[in-house]
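User: I'm putting together a teaching handout on how multi-component assemblies are represented. Below are the sequence lines for each component of a complex, exactly as they appear in our records. Could you produce the 3D structure of the whole assembly as structure tokens, so the students can see both representations side by side? Please keep the chain order the same as the input.
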Amino acid sequence: MTTHSITVTVNGESVRRAVQARLHLIDFLRGDLGLMGSHVACEHGVCGACTVRVDGAIVRGCLVLAASLDGASVETIEGVSDRGEIRDLQDAFIARNAAQCGFCTPGMLMCAADLLGSNAQPTRAEIREHISGNYCRCTGYQAIVDAIETTALKRVSSDAGGAKP
Amino acid sequence: MSAIIDPAALDRPNSYIGKSVPRPNLPKLVEGRGQYVDDVVLPRMVHVAFVRCPHAHALIKRIDAKDALAVPGVLRVFTGQDLAVVCDPWVAVLVHLAGMKSAPQYPLPLVRATWHGEAVVAVVADTRALAEDGVSRVLVDYDPLPAVADMETALAPGTPLIHPELGDNLCFQRINESGDVAAAFKAAHKIVEATFHTGRHTGVTLEPRSILADYNKGSGKLVVHHSTQAPHMMQGVFAKQLRMAEGDVRVICVDVGGSFGIKVHVYPDEVATVAIAKLMGRPVKFIADRLESFGSDIHARDHRIHGKMAVDAEGRITAIDIDDLTGIGPYSVYPRTSAIEGNQVINLVGGPYDFANYRAKTTVVLQNKTPTCQYRAVGHPIAVTVTEGLVDLAAEALGMDPITFRLKNLMRDDSYPRTSPAGMKFEGLSHIKSLGRLMDMIDYPALRAEQDAARAKGIYRGIGFAAFIELTNPSPFMYGIGGARISAQDGCSVRIDPDGSVVAATGVTEQGQGTEGIIRQIVAEAVGVAVGAVRVITGDTQNTPYGGGTWACRGAGIGGEAALQAGLATRAAALEVASAMLQAHADTLDIVDGNIVDRATAIIRMPLSELTRIVYFRGDTLPPGLPRELMQTRHFITKEYPFAFTNGIQACWLEVDVETGLIKLLKHWVVEDCGRIINPLLVDEQVRGGVVQGIGGALYEHCAYSPEGQLLVGSMADYLVPMAAEMPDIEVGHIETPTRESLLGAKGAGEAGTAGAPAAIMNAINDALRPLDAQVLAQPFSPERILQALGKVPMRG
Ligand code: FES
Ligand code: FES
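Assistant: Of course. Below is the structure of the complete assembly, with chains in the same order as your input.
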């Protein structure tokens, strides 16, 4: 089987690996790099549990081939957490119990962060629409929508109050 | 009642019971730093994948693994015969279900495969991908046999027998009759009748079934990392099937990515994984992929029910008669069995109502489809659909409003304790209060007015109701008396460590519902420390008291009471030491916020950490005979009532697009009485999650089969689960009728949402369609079925 040598920036660190042509990004992250925060639930691109960022855009890790990522920058829930980028969103998920088993949560958070990055004040319907490709079997979604909505409102009000450094 | 759980005392320090305290598990889970089974990697670990039968029923004539073994990285191939050498088969029957029968089941079949998706051959390789390469190169020579696909004809003469040695395809049948049903129907003012289908569903836990078995040939010990609801039960199962001592088996489950009843059963492929680990003497991992999940996770709810209800001229229910049929696949599932669902239907039909004459029959048949077993709310959604469907038909036949009819027939709140015609004992329920609370929440007259206004514009909206009871806190009457080693009791050990922090080890398990959160709250309050000072240990047979784990909504009611009692005992033990140290009577002291205080004045006498310093490091300074038992264990089991029933009512408001058959859910309400609420936030989210799972079954989810028994769902794109955009906001209200069986007073809350939602939706759809003279009674209520009911598309043959 053909292998490809790739150099990828993962959560800010450069990694170089030889990967098989058929290896998916999610298996590369979990299997080769031990980053277990992104999950596998369908491997068909349906459920969103494997959502990670490639060059700033969210993708399904089970659909992207690792070999195609030479030179790319990948960010996972671990990296986003370490940078504190979505601390407020994570706190809102905790306070609202928007995660039960937590299996969908990393993908859900990556997807929610993506929404808030492009739409600072989404309506509940827009939130529901945006996370529609991320399945959650536990919560029934309402708590997740609430947590995302609360975070958006807080961000807007702290921006308006000039509270940001 | 003790002040410890007096809600009026909520503002005492450390009074956490009844408060929305966030869960301790979440900080790690929101950072992706949990530990699910697939996250565990062990040295020399290998992966197993399975060749699965492509036929509904086939003879396994020959297995040729030569090409598979030639794949670099493929290590071993195992057949049913290979595993039978180290692993005994099991038969899933319960002796209290009289006459029940099933056949021995092996981890991999020896002679015949009996459903599409059954694991037939195991391939072990360095990686999962290589194991799959191996799987694709195993040649199995099958001789397809006629399949039993349709449950309606499973018992008909001429239908092939799945297990000839059983004599027929009947697994179980039970008939229950009380009162004089024939006379009641004869004297009836009106009789309504209908046939309901509840459809085959499956749980679709987002984390698939996962297991990692590690057998050490030197020590003879087996450690199994397992995504399971019942680690102690699985410990016993693995030991028994693999002929090991129970003490040599340890089952660990750290984080579980959803279970919903799916992960409380014994799966042949998982037992095979453990058997292979024992044979190979190295860690073996099996993570089901989604395709194999659909064909091998248990299915559920495949029932057809004829129901009949008699009412008198005043609009009172006088009799109910049901005939239930369910197809459960080729084997009853071990050890809970696949007859319990049908049995539950019989036990629960008519549950909320005051009526005397009841006849019910359930017939449980074998067929060549994926085995079915207990899935969230076992039998409840079926019983509630039949009952509430008949209730609405009866109200309509009488020209009575569905709420008026329910108010007339629901059991009065002051009529307990009482026993239902199905023989269920009720300690105390609140149907009338719950209905009243629901009316406060929904503004019924306004909804009816809106419905009329919409109809005038050609928009069809409907409101549907579903009253329900839910069985929680089960006693050994559910499984134990039938001979299954399934524990109905549970235990908790609470200890105070040298730094004054508290550890609680409990036999109930965490699946995301918040078990660790509520145990932490209960123990913190019982001992008298901040919640942050309590660590909870679950999911490890080596470190927790023996218990049943999570099923039938027992975590809060059973596990919570054990934790409360253990916490109170630990507090008393600490105060005994404090009393000696401070030369004060124990009754005059208390523990508040981690300090020993004077009970009357709340003045701090010393921190708990000072007491523990003395106990653990300077025990010489205490009176020699003084007990210093800062670890206490308590167990709890229900006493008088075999089950603690909860109750409630749901309402659904929706719109049917009569052109496309699409349903738009506008709003959903639930009133639930689960007794004492330990954490309102968690209870509400259990209810909401449960409702959405019920909505899934009602509208989208279906394990569809071809007439030949081929499963037609292969991915999450075929089997639709609820997505965020289609789900409504759900309003949840509560009534609290604590059980007197325990000090805590808690009953279960995890299944009520799922129990009632499908019936509320069905009734709402039929309410919307009433002016068009159409109705649907078969789930899922898909656009196609709606349009068929409206006569807009033909019925499929
Ligand atoms: S695992 Fe990638 S979308 Fe489901
Ligand atoms: S929290 Fe379990 S799948 Fe979302």
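A couple of points students might notice: The radius of gyration of chain B is 28 Å. The first strand of chain B starts at residue 46 and ends at 52.
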